[in-house]
Amino acid sequence: MFRMCEDLENLYDLHMIFKLVEGIILLNSPSIFDKIFSDEFILDIIGALEYDPEVPRVQRHLASQGSCSF
């Protein structure tokens, strides 16, 4: 869903996804961390955290730039 909202530049829903991800992280559960910080989800999690409604300008994450290596 995050990628679809980002492709459509739907800021309202991107802000909601940010709040959901933030809430999940604030649960501070190691089992949840293992899943959301896995290779499958980490880039989407990082991308979602860039849409903080309190920050006036959105920073583009590395995944959208096409050149990302770890």
Automatic annotation (TrEMBL):
- InterPro entries, alphabetically? P4R3-like_central_dom (IPR006887), PP4R3-like (IPR051137)
Tell me the keywords, alphabetical order. Nucleus
Give start and end of each Serine/threonine-protein phosphatase 4 regulatory subunit 3-like central domain. Answer: 1-61
According to its record, what are the GO cellular component terms? nucleoplasm; protein phosphatase 4 complex
The molecular function terms of the Gene Ontology recorded here are: protein phosphatase activator activity
Region forming the signal peptide: none
Q: What subcellular compartments does it reside in?
A: Nucleus
Fetch the PANTHER family from UniProt. ATP SYNTHASE GAMMA-RELATED, SERINE_THREONINE-PROTEIN PHOSPHATASE 4 REGULATORY SUBUNIT 3
Question: Per its record, how is this protein called by name?
Answer: Serine/threonine-protein phosphatase 4 regulatory subunit 3-like central domain-containing protein
